[in-house]
Amino acid sequence: MSDDAQHPRFMGLTGRPLSTAVSVVATTGFLLFGYDQGVMSGIISAAPFNAYFPEILYNETWQGFVTAIYEIGCLAGAITMLLYGDTLGRRKAITTGAIVMIIGTLIQVTPIKGHHAGAQFILGRTITGVGNGMNTATIPTYQAECSKTTNRGLLICIEGGVIAFGTLIAYWTDYGCSYGPDQLTWRFPIAFQIVFALIILVGPMLLPESPRWLLSKDRHEDAIKVIAALRGHRMDSEETRLEAHIIMDSLRASGHKGGNTPFSALFTNGKTQHFRRMMLGASSQLMQQIGGCNAVIYYFPILFERSIGQTHEMSLLLGGINMIVYSIFATTSWFLIERCGRRKLFLIGTVGQCLSMVIVFGALIPGNPSAAKGAAVGLFTYIAFFGATWLPLPWLYPAEVNPVKTRGKANAVSTCTNWLFNFFVVMITPILIKNIGWGTYLFFALVNACFLPFIYIYYPETARRSLEEIDLIFAKGYVENMNYVKAAKELPYLDEHGIEQMQRQYGFFDEDDAGLEVLGEKQGHGMIMTRDPAHRRTPQHPQHPHSLRLGPHHAAVHANARDHTRDDGTLPHPRPLCRDRPNGERRAARDRQRKYERRTADGGRQHPPPTVDASMEQRRRPEYNLDIFADLACVKDVVKAILHTIFFHRYFTSISPLTRDLLDLTLPAIDDVDLETLIDQRTIALVRAIDSAHQPRGRGQLVVQFFEKKRRKTYFFGKADEDVCWEQWTLDVTLAQPRTEADVIKVRRAMTKSLEKAAHKIIGIVNRDKDHIPPITTTDANPFPYHIIVNPKPVPENDWRPRIGLF
């Protein structure tokens, strides 16, 4: 492939210029959205417009309906994207929305008086709304999926911020046209939106499709081409391939099987938490609308005329000034969104809006013009807080918080919520103002107050997180049974390699993969495998769950497993370490033990067979030490891999073997829910204990002990069962915290070397040291109990407690 082909371009652009072009088109779509929101505010009360459409004059219900019917169209457009958005793709959906908006605009500006002009205007406004609903449901998703983690929040906030600039343009366009001819007063402001629509019609045709949508449709080569173009890398570069792998891992983790996402996927939970994440995004749009924003934006001139008593021209002028304030404060979110985070801005904006509405209704209570002017202050502060916080955030949050599998549909649901309640608020506001006056603003103040506890409890922070890291926040909260806000605080910030390891920790990968190559030695049934880098992501589905692709020198072990597999898919443990003893020795040991148990049970005075003193036995038990080195992102995964490797060779009961992939190694594991839960608990406790030390290089220890039950005499209690430890493994864990990219590379190499060395040591030990393993003398499901201890305290060698049968 030529060098030019390895550096793909769109519109002749690559890297940052191409990302900027994507942002310009996306921003223009929301500029048009803001323009449409504000254009009717100066027209709805204009005399030429009311003369042309007399049914609207002095009729609050008709005023609300003509303005709000646009939201019904937007709702229909969002529902269309909910049903067909994943099929169309991001670019086609935006282009289709622009075409629909142009058609709707032409219908609005061409009615003829006396020929059902009102019906034609309403129809055109509805169609325009359909196109805008399609765009607002798609553009944030398109922008989020094409952006880098470092600037995704900023770019989507710019989208949200330009809504204010669109509204500003609409207000001043209305104000300027109010001094022109009667037809110009309302036809030109409505027709002017075609300029913006043409930009978002042509732009997507020249720009790339979303790489995440392409991967969800199994168009891998196209996706790699787009990723390389957006990032300015070569198609065959490691960065391009790694980003594509991580996106595919997130797709698999969310249950994506290819093709279109079914609507039912929105209502699933588990570690992906699709339903919760959809509801978080939809709730942000709900709260934006019922907080009263459009009661202020759409009806600002009317509020000044009827609530404060200004003339129509002065109301338009004040509305235009208010929109300048709105636009200025909307830009502040661009600088605060990554610094303050989403949660803080949500909470600050809610408090500000609530207090502003309190000022408005408090100033309107006396009912005199001088006091009513104080309400203008409340309206200005409300629009300032709204522009800086609640204007962009509900468009950013759903696009971030939803996983790639359901992002298109879930974002459409949140947009539907926005337009549904937008219609509701715009429809009832003129009616509320006419009937309850200042009570309207008291209502919105109380509604805003109700938002605070909900946001504080349920909204996790997503700032400075990649979209795949956000998936990990919800997986962590579900797996570790913790509040998702707390999970977001506890999850460290990860690079691509850290994300990959955490995805493994929470089970985001298929267990069966191709390209397995044996590194272990030809002995026993221990195994340690590495993954061929050329086949890192090639899934395999063997005919038998245990018929992994191993080297020829392990064929006998797995052939034996296939021959003795039970009907339920589990393996009766072959107990190779006990069978390695000569048959006569095993029978003699078993006979001696049974004879002794019968004598002690009958109360006989015969002496038991000679035994070793318990304290001597404790001292003589094998103790093995393993040095583990890992960083914070991988420590849980590394420790769990070592523990599973130990238990795979010491779990003398029926097992369902698995493999776990880590740092290009494939290690054995056991499919046992109780064991997995215990390992998770102990691993999390270890990491927390190390992290709480606040040291640059923390250390911790895990001890695994295996016991046999023995019957022995005690000083006070006669005879009792005693758990005697016959083997102990000590994991000395060192936690590194790399600060630079060079440190990350060094730590990763050290982790790989440490893990490989520990795994080889385990394999060597279990195949060499066998004689100390006690005979199985019980029919219990697990003949040898085990303990996993975090940072154990040393017990004195001559401790008195074991002597009296307490331990």
UniProtKB/TrEMBL annotation:
Domain of life of the native organism: Eukaryota
Membrane-crossing residue ranges in chain numbering: 21-44, 64-84, 153-172, 184-207, 286-304, 316-337, 344-365, 377-398, 410-433, 439-459
UniProt region (Disordered), positions on chain: 561-619
NCBIfam families the record matches: SP
Main localization category: membrane
Subcellular compartments: Membrane
Keywords: Membrane, Transmembrane, Transmembrane helix, Transport
A Pfam family this chain is assigned to: Sugar_tr
Composition skew (Basic and acidic residues), residue ranges: 561-570, 577-591
Species name: Didymella rabiei (Chickpea ascochyta blight fungus)
Membrane association type: Multi-pass membrane protein
Protein name: Substrate-specific transmembrane transporter
